[in-house]
Amino acid sequence: MSAPSPAVFLDRDGVINLDTGYTHKVEDLVILPGVAKGCRRLIEAGFKLVIVTNQSGIARGLYTKSDYQRFTERLLELLATQSVHFHGVYFCPHHQLGEIKQYSKDCDCRKPKPGMLLEASKDLSLDLSKSYMVGDRPSDLEAAVQAGVIGQVLIATGKVLTDEGIQKASFVADDFLAATDWILTNSK
To answer: What NCBIfam families has UniProt attached to this entry (predicted)?
Structure first.
């Protein structure tokens, strides 16, 4: 059995693609600048890439699990044409105040809880102590801290920066390539 691998966990909306608010329509899919190039550099450096995304719009009845899956499949297809492949995609469809009963609950997977990262770690044999999280909200970073991820990067392309987010971050990046540079420099 091989040694566990380092990973870079990526939030989806606001980090990989433009966040339009409950983003789920394929026609609204816009991959953010520098994402493909940065992901290729991380892969070349030996990181496994894993998407971990809260999708409370499913619980809220704003879109379906099938809508989420169509959007994600298209995102993965577009990035694959640019030589970017993910080892895993994990999502949380839950929210305590959801309208859809089967998804209306408090769970262990919704960030800031670490459930998705811990599940990915088990499934993909990841070394969390050598892994990084790139997110656009304090909840992304908190999930990483709780999972034992070594570095948390707050990317400024997503939600408005908050003092809470800046305090939780190991680094605040202006864009995805700056996040990539920091991870590569600090993982040596």
So the answer is: GmhB_yaeD, HAD-SF-IIIA, Histidinol-ppas, PRK08942.1
